[in-house]
Amino acid sequence: MNIFRLLGDLSHLIAIIILLQKIWHTRSCAGISGRSQVLFALVYTTRYLDLVTTYVSMYNTCMKFVFLATSYATIYLIYLKFKATYDHNHDTFRIEFLILPAFGLSMLINHEFSFMEVLWTFSIYLESVAILPQLFMVSKTGEAESITSHYLFALGSYRGLYILNWIYRYATESHYDLIAIVAGVVQTILYCDFFYLYITKVLKGKKLQLPA
């Protein structure tokens, strides 16, 4: 644990809180990609199966439970409780084109060809592209609400802070995980255009618009 890992986890948690608060208080999931949320739920489910086999720390266990519970709560709100407000006409990204390649790659490139390790690797690969349906939806609709923009910025910041965490760990512990680093860099690159627009538009009180 270090300050970058802690800030990364905090940023991730803030992103989830922003999302749930937005949906609950507006009683609407308009502008939110249910498909991205399904992918995130799949990421956390396959990554945190070790909850029943391995204990690392109370912090680690609590964070895993929080991410699992909130991901399924978000899916419930989008597809059941506030289903009438879900914009399925714009949330059309074919997520099988992300799931199948991620699974295939995890079978070929992993640290150890075992059930738990392949699923962990799959979750790393899938997380790197799980935000694509949300970005695709924003691009398709032409703009994003400020609160949705804040959610995306916090989520992107989480990954950026984790890159700093990896750099710090390599400098202080000579530890690195190439699979996680490459996937994390890919994920951060996907946010770059959004980060630029967020800083130049949203922080100045303007609406965020992604190029179609």
TrEMBL record:
A Pfam family this chain is assigned to: ER_lumen_recept
Location of the protein in the cell: Endoplasmic reticulum membrane
An example Gene Ontology molecular-function term: ER retention sequence binding
Name under which the protein is recorded: ER lumen protein-retaining receptor
Record's bilayer topology term: Multi-pass membrane protein
Keywords: Endoplasmic reticulum, ER-Golgi transport, Membrane, Protein transport, Receptor, Transmembrane, Transmembrane helix, Transport
Protein family per UniProt: Belongs to the ERD2 family.
GO BP: protein retention in ER lumen; protein transport; vesicle-mediated transport
Location, primary (coarse class): endoplasmic reticulum
Source organism, top-level taxon: Eukaryota
Organism expressing this protein natively: Phaedon cochleariae (Mustard beetle)
